[in-house]
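quick one: zinc ion bound model?
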Amino acid sequence: MQGKIVKGIAGFYYVDVAESGIYECRARGIFRKEKQKPLVGDNVEIQVLDEKEREGNLVKIFPRTSQLIRPAAANVDQALVIFAVRQPDPNLDLLDRFLVAMEQQRVPAVICFNKSDLEEEGQAERLRRIYEGCGYRVLAVSAKEEQGIGQIREILEGKTTVVAGPSGVGKSSITKLLQQEISMETGEISRKLGRGKHTTRHAQLIRIGSHTYLMDTPGFSSLTVGGMEKEELRQYFPEFLPYEGSCRFQGCVHIHEPGCAVKAALEDGKVDAGRYASYVSFFEELKEKEKRRY
Ligand code: GDP
Ligand code: ZN
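yep, here:
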């Protein structure tokens, strides 16, 4: 049978098989010998050992289309990053860090601003203008009023999506709404997964439709930029790319160089000042890290 690993804990892999539910599986020695570590999100073949107890063995991992490092997961198609329009006010430094991390791992990101019902001064529109201007898809929704949830559902359909964002922005509220339709069906899944032996939070996939999975990540409050040279950072600000090659100096990092096309675009208001400030601050951070390395 074929299925998808939705959770991995202490040598056990929980494999969701369409139409028949979750099996608790162990990886056979062959994976250890080949140094192949199964990941949440892997599409696998299993051999059922005990149908009643729903236990089996992993026998094969199908080739991965992608591999995320943080959180560790295979075959992730996209990320949905959720912030609130207000309460808490969106921390755009944190959002920009997250977007850089996704660009670095080549995972397309969709940005969702929740709590649009609390909006007072057109915050959602302002945020939309900034991030759509960078080429991101931006949604303004309200879990409270169930506004825009259908739009999220459309974006998620048929894909595996990592859901991220700081705590308090409404991630669980949105996930609950998305799960509602199949909550009957997932009763069985929760029973098998919820055996409560373990307390640490692990990456886990939740099926919200046929072949549609969400990966819940713990809420984060900080992220560091890393795993790259500072000269690489500019590639991860997609709104800079149209100007790449138009600066006076080749290899311009768009900070102090004269004749910089990105800085000219900033002056013209074509590049957002807040985004540019994030760029400069992340660049400095990478520079500091480099100094410490030598
Ligand atoms: P999480 O920490 O990101 O999972 O956030 P929760 O889903 O737990 O929501 C945090 C708080 O915000 C709760 O009190 C929710 O009732 C509230 N909340 C969630 N979505 C909305 C929304 O769209 N509008 C308003 N006004 N409050 C919301
Ligand atoms: Zn430049």
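Residues 183-188, 195-200 have pLDDT under 50 and may be disordered.
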